Amino acid sequence: MDTVMGRRKKVGIMGGTFNPVHMGHLLLAENAYSMFSLDEILFIPSGCSYMKDPRGILDGPTRLHMTALSISDNPHFSLSSMEIDRGGYTYTCQTLEQLEQENPDCDYYFIMGADSLFQMENWKDPDVIFQKAVILAAVREGRDLGELEAKSKQLAERFQARIHQVPIGNIDISSSDIRQRVREGRSIRYLVHDRLREYIEENQLYRVSACPGKQENRHE
């Protein structure tokens, strides 16, 4: 990553367990890319989230490969293994600090579900996150925006947070539902990229029931 035509590069960050990555992730990333004139969307599968039960989560290299399959046909999507490589618990603040150190000429836009705004003050070093990235909050159609706007204002006043909304229509796809469908032998066509669907089927992934858990990140 470096400057683009003499200006700072604008990089969107899509983090999450990606267990598995699905079309909702991809559509959100594409919406953010277009709406905010970003130069790139960087997908970063999480390592070991300190807020998520690790049982039922596929290993890092497998989730990394599944994400690579899903984004390979989009020229402005890219992939990083930094959180998986780092080892130990995954913290968004550390990821942003590492990105800034490695690419100081980039501006970062952290893409997340709008509901996670109400949890961010409990994340590790939220002030660092707000300092180092603009927040792009995905908002589903029909959501009451009053409470969301009030929370955004509170975070802006407390942390000088820069928060913008990304409309994503009425798309309701979740990784947990996809895993459940696989366990029940139901189709996941059109919920995940075709290459990923074939990979899941060929390798018989998600056939065993998993224990649900909560996570820091917002895309599950």
Describe this structure in words.
By secondary structure, this protein is of the alpha/beta class. It has a single domain (9-203), classed as Rossmann fold (3-Layer(aba) Sandwich). It is built from eight helices and eight strands. It has helices at residues 23-35, 60-71, 82-86, 92-102, 126-132, 145-159, 175-183, 194-202; strands at 9-16, 40-45, 48-49, 77-79, 89-90, 106-113, 133-139, 163-167. The strands form two sheets. It has a six-stranded parallel sheet with strand order 4-2-1-6-7-8. A two-stranded parallel sheet has the order 3-5. β6 (106-113), α5 and β7 (133-139) form a beta-alpha-beta unit. α2 runs antiparallel to α8 (194-202) and α4 packs parallel to α5. The model is unreliable at 210-220 (pLDDT under 50).
Compact summary:
InterPro entries: Cyt_trans-like, NadD/NMNAT, Rossmann-like_a/b/a_fold. This protein is α/β, with parallel strands linked by helices and 220 residues long. 37% of the residues lie in helices and 19% in strands.
Instruction: Please describe the biggest sheet, giving its number of strands, its sense, and whether it closes into a barrel.
Output: 6 strands, parallel
Number of strands: 8
Gross geometry: globular
Unreliable spans:
210-220
CATH topological fold name: Rossmann fold
Q: What is the C-alpha radius of gyration, as a whole number of Å?
A: 17 Å
The CATH class name reads Alpha Beta
- Number of folding domains? 1
Function: Catalyzes the reversible adenylation of nicotinate mononucleotide (NaMN) to nicotinic acid adenine dinucleotide (NaAD).
Protein name: Probable nicotinate-nucleotide adenylyltransferase
Catalytic activity: nicotinate beta-D-ribonucleotide + ATP + H(+) = deamido-NAD(+) + diphosphate
EC number: 2.7.7.18
